[in-house]
Task: structure prediction
Amino acid sequence: MLKRFAARVLLLSLALALSSAAQQEEKIDYDMITKIRYEGFRNSKVMEIASGLMDGIGPRLTGSPNMKRANDWTREKLAEFGLANAHLEAWSPFGRGWSNEYVNVRMVTPDVAPLLVYAKAWTPGTNGAVRAEVMRVIVRTPQDIAKYQGKLAGKIVLVGDDAEVKPSVEPLSERYDDKSLAALGQYQVPAERNDPRFREFMQRFRLQRELNKFLEGEKVVASIDHSRGAIGGGTVFVQQGGSYKTGQTSTVPQLTMAVEHWDRIARLLAQKIPVELELNVKNNFYDDATTQYDTLAEIPGTDKKDELVMLGAHLDSWHAGTGATDNGAGTVVMMEAVRILKALGVQPRRTIRIGLWSGEEEGLLGSQWYVMHHFGERPESKDPERKGDPTLLRRENGPVTLKSEQKKVSVYFNVDNGTGKIRGIYLQENAAVQLIFESWMKPFADLGMNTLSMRNTGGTDHLSFDAVGIPGFQFIQDPVEYETRTHHSNMDVYDRLQPDDLKQMAVIVASFVYQAAMRDQMFPRKPIEKELPPAPPANDGGN
Ligand SMILES: [Zn+2]
Result:
C-alpha cells in the first residue's frame, strides 16, 4: 500500500501524463479558435438568420407548405454563404400535409367571451362558424367510453382531467449550476428494456385513439382539451390530434385551449350551467405531401475530401408558435457555424456537411431516412402498423446492414435542446472520445463549457447516426425556458431566443466541426447496438 503522499504524487503524474498525451494527440489550432470567436461574436448573423426563419417563414410542421418553404430558403441561404452542393434530398413516405388558416372560438352562453385556443395538427376545421352546447367527457379507461354511447351527437365535448393552475414558485427560466452539471456528469446504468414506461405510453396512446374513433362515430361537433402543465398564463402546449398518415387522420375538429379558459367552462358545467360555444376553424390538408425533404450543403474538403464531418439539426417544428427554440435555435446555430467557417475561408481536410432534417417531431423521420439511404439500415418491420415507417431506431426489426459510405463519416454533431448555451457534451457511452472532447472544450471554459457526461442522451437526430455506428453527439445545454414555456407551445417564438447563447453555441460548434475536419484520425467508434430479441409477452391488464 502506498503512503498518502506517494499516492498523491503518483496520481498527479498520472494526470499529467494523461493530459500531455491528450495534448500531444489533440492539436488545437488556437489561431483558428481566435478567428472563429471574433467572427462569431463580432460579426454574428445568427439573429438575422433566426428572424428570416421564424418571422419570415414561421412554423414548419412537416408536410405543410411552410416546411417546403423552409427547405428552399435554407438551401438558398447556405448557397449564399458560399457552401457547395446545397440541395434538397427527398424521403418518403410521410403522410398528409396540414396547416391552420384560422381559429376563432368564443363562449356565447352564459356569457360572451373570446377564448384562447389552437387547432391540433392533422384535424379538420368546422366549415364556417358553428354553435353548439358543450358536454364534459371523462375517459380514463376503455370501459368509461361506453357510458357516453348515443349521448354526444351535435355536442362540443370537453375532454381531459381537471386542470389546476398554480403560481410558479420555481423560476420559469433555469441555468445549470455546478451541482446540476456534476449530477449530469454521473452515469446511470440503463435498463436493457424500457418496457413498463413504453407499455404505459402505448396504453395511453391506444386509449386516445379509441376515444377519437368513438367521438367520430358519435358525430360530435368538436373536442377540446386543455394545455398541459399547471403554469398556464397564456402558454398553450399543442401538438397533433391523431395520425398524420393518409387514411388515418381525424374526422373530428380537435382543439387545445388555454388551461384557465378550459377550467371556466368545466366549472360551469359542474354546476349544471349550460355552456354554448361558437367555433370557427379553417384547416387545410395537402395530399401531395408524401414526399418530404432534408436540406444538405457542404464545405468541400482537401486531402481527405472523401471523408465527412457532419453537423445537423431538425428544421421542422410544431405549429402553434414559430418553432424558435424547437428547433429553430439548433437550425440557425448550425447555419451560423458553417457561415463562420466559410467567412474565414477555411480549407478543411475532410468535407464538412450540414443536414437540416424534417419529420423529427414525428419520430426522427428525416434523419432516419437520410441515414438509411446513405449509411446503413435495418430490415422492414413485421408490425403492420409500422408499414412505411423507417426502421433504423427499432432494434427488434433486425441487425443493421452497413453501406460503404458509413466508413467515411468521422462524426456527427447535433443541437436540439432549445436556446440555452452549451455547457458540455454527452459522450453517448463512447469512452474513447473523452480525451478528445476534454481538450477541445478547454478553450471554451470561459464561456461555461466544462462538462462531459458518458450518458446516452436521446430524443433527437444524433440517434439515427448512432444507430449505424457513426459517432453522433448532442451538446448539453442550459434549459432556460424550454420545459416551462417554449417546448411545443404557442410561445415558442423569436422573442424567447437568447442571442448571446446562440452566438456561444455557433462558436463552439464551428470550432468542434473544424477540429474534427482537421484531425489526423477519424473519430473512435463504439460497437453498433445488436438486434433486440422479441419482448416477452406482456400483460396489459386489459386497459
Ligand atoms: Zn420537439
